[in-house]
Amino acid sequence: AGVETVKRAVQLDVASRFQESLVCYQEGIDLLLQVVKATTDEAKKHRYRQKISECTFLSDGKYHKQIKIEENATGFGYEKLFREYLTEIVSEVWVEDPYIRQVHQASRYLLYNFLRFCEMLVKGPCKVKTIHLLTSYDEGIGRSQQMTALEEIKQSLSNYGVTLNIDFSSSIHDREIRFNNGWMIKIGRGLDYFKKPQGRFSIGYCDFDLRPCHETTVDVFHTKHTKKM
To answer: What pLDDT is stored for residue 43 in this prediction?
Structure first.
């Protein structure tokens, strides 16, 4: 199955369908790694390791996609934006965003946005076990609210078998999300690209696909897939 998946990846690569080919490469690598672990034949192990190295080389650095979200555009909920990159082999996620802190800040619902992102991971086809969050401390009295909210999210995720690791940095500026299948997504506004809903009972309050967006740019990259062989 691994070899057939790799062959399909090569075909897609030749056809310049890079995003689909990368998904196939990753799935093929994962299947071949399972074979390497299961076989006791050293010659076969060596051949499969060579094939994995070739696949890793072919899949490395071939993809960059840019998505432009226009002012007031709709249809960019987290599920639609991220789901094609959340393949079944995704088990670990890194979120770096300096502003996952206040529940209310002008037009922002930052902690709620992070919660909604976590809900998407729990519902997705992937089997996420660990989420790493790197953010900055809120200032003043907001810090207590931030810590309480993050601890509640952490406890709630643990009920679904997901561990949330939280770290803080006073110098963090970049916003990016990484999955352990090699995909990296950089959003100009981080997770906070939705506009404030008109009211708690207005369309788009619950369904982010219907929520108007702020103008921003999304850059999707693929980084080298590294796994111990």
So the answer is: 77
